[in-house]
């Protein structure tokens, strides 16, 4: 299953009492926002984090998918993001009816 890194931005400073809900994420508390970062989430994990943010009543101001980390690229665990053209051989056919 595809796993991606994400960043979630929450308005305001999340207090220490609520940070335990995000133990599986890297948390950075700034003056006007709290930034959560995941190391790798599948789609179910992404929706799980969004659900926790909503259920705690936080205002989500942004979500973005981050590029693969250098570690992912070195181990080959990252998704291949290059655009590739489908090279399947097909024959062109015309309807002669």
Keywords, separated by commas or semicolons:
Alpha-Beta Plaits; alpha+beta; globular; 97 residues; single chain; four-stranded antiparallel sheet
Strand content: 15-25%
Secondary-structure class: alpha+beta
The mean pLDDT is 81
What is the CATH topology descriptor of the domain at 5-69?
Alpha-Beta Plaits
* Name of the level-1 CATH class of the domain at 5-69: Alpha Beta
- Main sheet: strand order: 2-3-1-4
The CATH architecture category of the domain at 5-69 equals 2-Layer Sandwich
Share of helix, binned: 10-25%
Radius of gyration: 20 Å
Task: Tell me the number of helical segments per DSSP (H or I, 4 or more residues long).
Answer: 3
Give the termini separation. 46 Å
User: Topology as H/E string?
Assistant: EHEEHEH
Inertia-based shape? globular
The largest sheet, given as strand count, sense and whether it forms a barrel, is: 4 strands, antiparallel
Task: Report low-confidence residues grouped into runs of 5 or more.
Answer: 75-94
Number of strands: 4
Write a concise synopsis of the structure shown.
With 97 residues, the chain is an alpha+beta fold.
């Amino acid at each position: 299953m595809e796993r991606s890194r994400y960043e979630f931005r929450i308005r305001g400073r999340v207090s220490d009492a609520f940070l335990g809900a995000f133990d599986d994420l890297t948390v950075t508390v700034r003056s006007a926002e709290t930034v959560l970062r995941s190391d790798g989430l599948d789609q179910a994990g992404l929706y799980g984090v969004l659900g926790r943010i909503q259920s705690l009543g936080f205002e989500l101001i942004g979500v973005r998918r981050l590029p693969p980390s250098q570690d992912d690229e070195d181990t080959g665990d990252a998704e291949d993001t290059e655009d590739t053209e489908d090279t399947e051989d097909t024959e062109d056919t015309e309807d002669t009816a």
